[in-house]
Amino acid sequence: MNVTEALNSRFTCRAFKSQPLEKDTILAILEAANRAPSWANTQPWEIFVAGGEDLESLRQACLENFRQGVPGNSDLPRAEEWPPHITRRVQSLMADRSQALGIDRADKAARKTLAEQNHRFFGAPVVVYLCMERSLTPWSIHDLGMMAQSIMLAAEERGVASAIAYNLVIYPDLIRKAVDIPEDLAIIIGLALGYADMAIPQNDFRSSRRSVEEVVRFQGI
User: Fold this and answer.
1) DSSP type of residue 163
2) What CATH number is given to the structural domain containing 183?
3) N or C of the chain: less Cβ packing under 10 Å?
4) What is the C-alpha to C-alpha distance for residues 4 and 153, in angstroms, rounded to an integer?
5) Interhelix angle 52-67/108-119, nearest 10 degrees
6) What is the dihedral of CA 150, 154, 155, 156, to 10 degrees?
7) Does the predicted TM-score (pTM) go above 0.70?
8) Residue 194 lies inside a defined structural domain of this protein
9) For each of the chain's 221 residues, which pLDDT tens digit applies?
10) Comparing C-alpha atoms, which of 157, 147, 159, 158 is closest to residue 191?
């Protein structure tokens, strides 16, 4: 599999098999991803990998928080408001996914059941947390994003599915307790890893992309 093939085949997996992900496979993925670039070779990422009973306890705690309506308090604050053109893309995604799954957007119970899958970490056997020192700037967040993409592509090459999702880091206090992440590190990105359950309809859905002609602006070329 070449890079272009990996970019085109990768998708956000929303249903994983219960099949464990071997430690050697995880290490191979992270070893490859560790070549990700960073500003002045700062390599600001600190990586924590959770699985087994520890992850299961965290999964249940996050799900209970969601069911109790506990508001999220991520270390990296979420956007309170999107620009209108981005809001339209988010709304389009939600509508397309609901249609693909046969869910009426007015059906609150069905939407809640679907949302719970986020807080179950989509059933993934492993979650990777990318953290950095709190004193660092958004430039280092940029570096963590490149590490995240590198992990997802390295995973794809090895037949391992991935999901990067805000709800994986929505309750940092619970994560710290379960994964032993120190307070001086901000939990920035959560990545679920495992083997995709392609019998689940959610994994058939693919989100749309704007055309390159719409996205790219050339000057002098």
Assistant:
1) E
2) 3.40.109.10
3) C
4) 10
5) 150
6) 100
7) yes
8) yes
9) 999 999 999 999 999 999 999 999 999 999 999 999 999 999 999 999 999 999 999 999 999 999 999 999 999 999 888 999 999 999 898 888 888 888 877 777 878 888 889 899 999 999 999 999 999 999 999 999 999 999 999 999 999 999 999 999 999 999 999 999 999 999 999 999 999 999 999 999 999 999 999 999 999 99
10) 147
Pairwise CA distance, residues 218 & 78, whole Å: 31
The amino acid present at 88, given as its one-letter code, is R
Number of separate domains in the chain: 1
In a domain, 59, yes or no: yes
> How many residues in total does the chain contain?
221
Q: What tokens appear for 103 in the block? A: 């869910």
107: in domain? no
